[in-house]
Request: fold
Amino acid sequence: MDLFWFKILAIILIIGTGLLGGLIPLSKGFKKGGLQWLNMGNALAGGIFLGAGLLHMLPDAFDGFSQLNFNIDFPFAALICGGGFFLVLFIEKVLVGEKATNALADKGHQFPYVLFFVLAIHSIIAGASLGLESGLLSSIAIFIAIIAHKGSAAFSLGVSLVQQQITKKRIRISILFFSVMTPLGILLGSLFASLEGNSTAVLSEAIFDSLAAGTFIYIAVMDIIDEVFESRDKPLQHFTLMILGFLVMALIAIWT
Reply:
């Protein structure tokens, strides 16, 4: 399949997955028991995100910097990767962390929108990393990581909005906007890659692959894995699913 049409298909599937996951909590048949399936899906997604960051994005970043012939023996990719990790850490735990804590304490309507803001940032960065990719197999690997978590992230947002008794109309609008954040990132990444010159494009992709690797590792470790084991329910099963997700990314790495 041509890379352009794959990214179009990815946009459609990502929007559909986001809408489906986010609107399930509004259905009459929704039960809290579904949270167990959410944890299982998150466990698998955690391994996939970690594998995508460590086995695909970071190696691509190192390869990109090696093509630029800086003649400097310095791990630029690892440095920027760490910067991406700390960037999301700052946004989530420092910039909006206190507001989220205050909102929970006051039992107000602010917390779901803080959650929306954090998830939207994750989505745009992940989407841009896919948009900047120039290889089909690498794009497929990133897409698998995105799609594995998009539905569960939208579901979590939907549950949060329903619990705060926000109107169904506002919930649907919020879920719609969240669903298009990743495709927006894909379009921005694709546009940026097409506008740049040859060597500048390699540098831009290397920098953004490094940055995205850091954010993917952060999402896997600080958000997904931490949340999954917080419940202390079926830890071995969740650990096995994480290993499975990581191995899927390892298998894809053989052909990329």
